[in-house]
Write a sequence for this structure.
């Protein structure tokens, strides 16, 4: 069962996909009506995502690495229920000239969204930072599993976490890791 769209972390991925696609329209940046700051671009992208999210097929709402094999091709889904407000907004900003153009733009955004949402998780060792992820000091770091290895089997059985996230790590300094491993509720 899907969570309400306003609570879904995937809607933020869709909004980011809109923002990346909007940035590919450099000619719009000269217009007075085009979002001219990152905050305005984020707000505009979030608005577009909020408008279209409830009309997307359920498979898109739950897009993840685990569901990638069940994702429909964005070019094959019907977009007949695309909100008029969404289409009108794209037309008024010069992003599309008509409903077909708006749907074409949406299909490109959805393709970007699926690519990003269904991408494999990073190789956790490649996520190494130069500073402790909690205290932000630049000192020697060690990695710590965010989901304890001893609970991996149980986490999969209870469906607490998808298998691709089991080896996610945090890069911590020795001081923070000692406090964390000692069971302190500070963190």
């Amino acid at each position: 069962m899907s969570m309400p769209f306003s609570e879904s972390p995937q809607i933020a991925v869709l909004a980011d996909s809109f923002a990346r696609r909007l940035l590919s329209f450099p000619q719009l940046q000269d217009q007075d009506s085009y979002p001219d700051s990152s905050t305005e671009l984020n707000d505009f992208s979030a608005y577009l995502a909020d408008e279209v999210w409830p009309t997307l097929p359920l498979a898109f709402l739950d897009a993840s690495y685990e569901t990638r094999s069940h994702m429909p091709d964005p070019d094959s889904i019907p977009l007949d229920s695309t909100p008029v407000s969404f289409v009108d907004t794209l037309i008024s900003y010069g992003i599309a000239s008509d409903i077909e153009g708006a749907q074409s733009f949406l299909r490109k955004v959805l393709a970007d969204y699926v690519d990003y949402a269904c991408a494999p998780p990073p190789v956790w060792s490649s996520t190494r930072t130069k500073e402790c992820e909690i205290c932000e000091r630049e000192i020697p770091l060690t990695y710590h599993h965010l989901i304890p290895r001893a609970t991996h089997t149980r986490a999969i059985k209870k469906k607490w976490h998808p298998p691709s996230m089991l080896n996610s790590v945090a890069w911590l300094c020795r001081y923070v890791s000692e406090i964390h491993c000692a069971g302190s509720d500070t963190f």
